[in-house]
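Consider the tokenized backbone below.
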């Protein structure tokens, strides 16, 4: 049993079932989420008999790093992590000023099949458990803690491998666990969930009125083009998607982010920008445009700086805030799923 899969009530139930007082569960929780201990031996505040019981019962090493890559500017670290069943996922740490943003995975592979995405090209293997999602954050939290007391994770984006809303319950359970004030105490507003546009899940998410930020991968404002890039559009088309987004903003009062991978000559033209302006009219939103990260399975090319700037200008002149994200970590294949897909082809790389 993976220890990070337990919430505090389940842990308390187990510990008291061993005839231990309930406060022992609290001590374990504090050790895990405030001290970042990752093996039973580190819990020196507990009786040896309890530590032995923990070692027998729980799996602590949810994730084993098999490859660590730092970008040439040293600001981005990408880690390939092996799960208990041998599958691999990736998690990225991006440093920018005081920000420490983690990009974590929610699935092994992805069922959505977006043509431009390395994870989509891989297909779906399985969902991550809530504990496997939590463990990615704790892995980096511990690493930063070792660098210095004040070096802490500031933001977590669920933009690694997988579609978080296809693994809804485990994703939300992971967020809740990391959010626990008695544990890691990571504020809901510091999370961003990114979805390819699963409309019923967007509605459910809106109704739960969480403080978590929502990003929607749009990439096209016309159904034919979007369906070619993102098969999910055949299930939930742009009109339904934007309607759900408008409802989300109305229900929660929160701004929504639209992601747009700028592909040269495909969706980075002035006409595309103008169509997007019409589509998003009156919606409390922000557009995050990022030059496409080229992948082997997709022939599209990244936009150029000039084209990206022109795209951004049209949006902003029409009252839609737009950021063109700098490509971080491109030299370490920090695009979604790119490292893991390369690994699949070379399973014998050193660990
Ligand atoms: N499945 C979710 C979250 C993971 S993907 C989603 O699709 O939103 C995170 C973001 O990376 C999405 O906006 C996705 O469209 C984008 N992305 C995937 N492959 C990309 C690539 N090759 N270049 C640029 N962005 C990419
Ligand atoms: Fe899945 Fe997101 Fe990649 Fe699409 S972009 S295949 S939804 S991970």
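A designed sequence for it:
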């Amino acid at each position: 049993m993976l220890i990070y899969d337990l919430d505090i009530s389940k842990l308390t139930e187990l510990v008291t079932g061993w005839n231990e007082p309930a406060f022992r569960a609290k001590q374990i929780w504090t050790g895990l989420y405030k001290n970042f201990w990752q093996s039973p031996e580190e819990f020196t505040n507990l009786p040896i008999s309890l530590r032995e019981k923990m070692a027998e019962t729980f799996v602590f090493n949810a994730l084993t790093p098999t490859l660590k890559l730092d970008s040439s500017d040293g600001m981005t670290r990408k880690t390939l992590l092996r799960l208990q069943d041998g599958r691999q996922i990736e998690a990225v740490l991006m440093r920018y000023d005081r920000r420490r943003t983690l990009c974590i995975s929610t699935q092994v592979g992805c069922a959505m099949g977006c043509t431009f995405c390395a994870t989509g090209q891989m297909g779906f293997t399985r969902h991550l458990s809530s504990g496997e999602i939590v463990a990615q954050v704790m892995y980096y939290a511990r690493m930063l803690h070792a660098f210095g007391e004040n070096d802490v994770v500031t933001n977590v984006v669920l933009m690694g491998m997988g579609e978080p809303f296809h693994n809804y319950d485990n994703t939300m359970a992971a967020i809740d666990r990391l959010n626990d004030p008695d544990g890691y105490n990571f504020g809901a507003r510091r999370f961003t969930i990114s979805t390819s546009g699963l409309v019923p899940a967007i509605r459910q998410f809106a109704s739960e009125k969480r403080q978590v930020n929502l990003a929607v991968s749009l990439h096209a404002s016309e159904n034919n083009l979007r369906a070619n890039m993102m098969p999910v559009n055949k299930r939930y088309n742009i009109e339904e998607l934007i309607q759900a987004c408008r409802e989300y903003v109305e229900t929660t009062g929160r701004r929504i982010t639209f992601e747009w991978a700028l592909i040269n000559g495909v969706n980075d033209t002035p006409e595309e920008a103008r169509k997007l302006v019409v589509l998003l009219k009156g919606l409390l939103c922000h557009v995050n445009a990022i030059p496409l990260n080229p992948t082997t399975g997709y022939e599209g090319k990244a936009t150029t700086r000039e084209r990206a700037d022109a795209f951004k200008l049209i949006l902003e002149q029409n009252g839609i805030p737009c950021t063109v994200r700098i490509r971080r970590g491109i030299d370490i294949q920090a695009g979604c799923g790119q490292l893991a897909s390369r690994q699949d082809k070379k399973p014998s790389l050193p660990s």
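Residues 64-344 form a domain with the TIM Barrel fold (CATH 3.20.20.70).
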